[in-house]
Amino acid sequence: MENSGRSSTFSGGLLTYAASYFSKLMGSDEALQSLLPESRGDHSLLNEKTDLQRRRPRRGCASETDINLQQKIIVENPLHPQSILAKSEAEFHFKPVFLCLVAYLGAGTLCFFLTSHQIKGIKTNRFLDAIYFCVVTMTTVGYGDLVPDSSLAKLLACIYVFTGMALVGLILSKAADYIVEKQEILLVRAINKGGKLGLVELSKEVENHKAQYKFMLAAATFLALMIIGTTFLYFVENLDFVDAFYCVCATVTTLGYGDESFSTTIGRTFAVFWILSSTICLAQFFAYLAELYAEGRQKLLAKMVLTRKLSASDLEAADLDGDKIISAAEFIVYKLKEMGRISQEDISDMMESFRKLDQDKSGTLTEADLQYSESS
User: Fold this and answer.
1) What is the DSSP letter of 236?
2) Is 365 exposed, middle or buried (0-12, 13-18, 19+ CB in 10 A)?
3) Phi then psi for 75, rounded to 5 degrees?
4) CA distances from 227 to 234, 260, 285 (A)
């Protein structure tokens, strides 16, 4: 009976998370509104929202108490759109990434500047060629217009290309992802120009179609970079249109055949920024395409699971506490397992964590339990 009570309590504890997932999945708040009242932990939050609306000043000037309460609601409610935006901003800081890139390029430029006499090929300015060689190496473009010509230069290039691949893959791609996410609101505003959407509506729209908007932004950015690169090579590097487009494609895909490349001073200055942007953008484009495809499959699977008729064996499997009655929480947990969102191992691990926190073995968690666990 004690284990049965704990299982039932734990199932209720999953209710809020499950309702959050279904609300996001179906693009509406119906599941959340219908299930949240059954969760005891959210009653105070809902009451605070109601009290906030009742106490709001009529003249549009919010009191300090209301502002603090509203901030508390935003922080404590992970489903709140402003909380989602705040979390996204807190997860990533652009300045450290920029400084890391500058330090990496600076160190590489210094090394290849000092060994410039050991690099052969088409040369313009010694310092610019060093930066250009760094970018071409770290992005694995490798035109072949500048190549190492000594053992020391070759070893430096080997070290630099491996560290550069790691930097692009782990850091710069994250920076590109962050920039794209920051522009999602602008894209949603542009698409929904006819309708006046507030912050809450915009945030919900972005969250419900995140993969789609990220893919659209990456595709538009990549197309713009392709056009800019082709135009620059055509007018500045004096390549014909086909060769310019061919060089752009060979660059962004990091083929780098080397028969066409940036050979002028202004061209290599442009290439330092354009090569970094275009190669990373293409990588993000394919990453978002894969994410969009995976999201589509998940939604299709969720629809199949939700519309499938339940059998007696399903009811037996969903009955976590063995009382022959399927509660909303048990139904949600079972469906989440069927969708592959959680596993039995996950549930067992969470149950074990719950038991460790439940110091008085009452099947519920209180402040006394938490204080005891912190002191022990």
Assistant:
1) T
2) middle
3) -70, -45
4) 11, 17, 16
Token pair, residue 55, equals 């106490």
The whole-model pTM stands at 0.65
pLDDT tens-digit readout, 49-99 = 444 444 444 444 444 544 454 444 444 444 444 444 444 444 557 778 888
State phi, psi for 270 to the nearest 5 degrees.
Answer: -65, -40
Q: Give dist(CA 36, CA 18) in Å, integer.
A: 10
Give how far the C-alpha of residue 20 lies from the chain's centroid of Cα atoms, to the nearest Å. 18
Query: Structure tokens of 57?
Result: 């000043």
Cβ burial, residue 247 (10 Å; 0-12/13-18/19+) = buried
Both structure tokens of 137: 């190496």
How many residues does the structure list for the chain?
376
- Reported as a single tens digit per residue, the pLDDT across 206-219 is 677 788 888 988 99
CB-based contact 212:275 (threshold 8 Å): no
DSSP state of 117: G
CA distance 267 to 232: 8
CA angle 280, 283, 286 (to 5 degrees): 150
183-194 as b/e: b if 16+ CB within 10 A? ebbebbeeeeee
